[in-house]
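Page 47, continued from p. 46.
Same chain as before, 179 aa.
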Amino acid sequence: MGRPTKLDLAYIAGFLDGDGSLMVQLKNRANQGLPHRLMFTICFYQDSRHEKTLFWIRDKLGIGYVFRRKDGMTELRVNGYLQTKTIMTILSPYLKFKKLQAEAMYQAAAILCKRKYLRKLTSQEKNELIRCILVVQNENYASRHKKSEDELKKILGMVPVTTSPARPERLAQAGKVVC
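Result:
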């Protein structure tokens, strides 16, 4: 369909603000030697009766997969830290409500771009990554599987600290991302 215009990007960003979600999650690996992996996801949701919009967005972005859920909803998902970093770069100027999450997702992806593997991250990079994950996670209104800072530190092989000088929810309220 060609390259998206600024108007297309503004529309897609508005759609993401209203009917989308951004996720940065630590997932268990079942069989690949390493215990966890980071999963970056941008997801757009739409009633299946109006799913054409999701195919249009996929065509404009040139990436993602569309699938119908059993509950009458259709999703467009984009996975991967490089892919989500690229999309956050082009949509960020137009985002209004998910701007803080987008910045945190971008910064988490930038950390991984430097090292590529979780096991190669320095302690400082792990702390920055945890802060970014918490910002994205705390801005999402519904999640059954939110992890605490201590849980994230344990997963990444760090000693959990029970008190933190900068809490992500306070930073989110102030409109600052420290990642």
